[in-house]
Amino acid sequence: MKLLIINGPNLNLLGLREPEIYGNETLFDIESWLINQPEVDDHTITWFQSNHEGELIERIHDAMGNVDGIVINPGALTHYSYALRDAIVAVNIPTVEIHLSDINTREEFRKISVVKDVCLAQLSGLGKKGYLEAIKKLIH
Ligand code: DQA
Q1: Predicted model pTM
Q2: Domains and CATH numbers, the chain
């Protein structure tokens, strides 16, 4: 399968950003770990990160016809971006939402995800393993 892993705003700062919540590993560390997991052998994985909502939307559009599944950590856009939600619906590609932290046990505003019900599943609070679990859901 061709899989696209999308990370939204501020996830480029992983490793530096609030390590007590998000851990000490960088996004690159997580990517390197993930591509070495046996479960992802035989699959093509592409990573994309942007701090810009429009760039994330365009990357989702570009996936149409080219990608079999999307794993998305939309960062704070999770909580309010109807444009991102519409993009996920528009391309009709199976998508799994993931969060490193458990968004259900943090501030009230994080409990709301406007993309949750247009995704196959929401995985939250599993750290980097969430990316792998999301991929497993798409593969099966
Ligand atoms: C996050 C949770 C969001 O609430 C936050 O805005 C992020 C990261 C997570 O991975 O836990 O940027 O998506």
Answers
A1: 0.97
A2: 2-60+82-139 (3.40.50.9100)
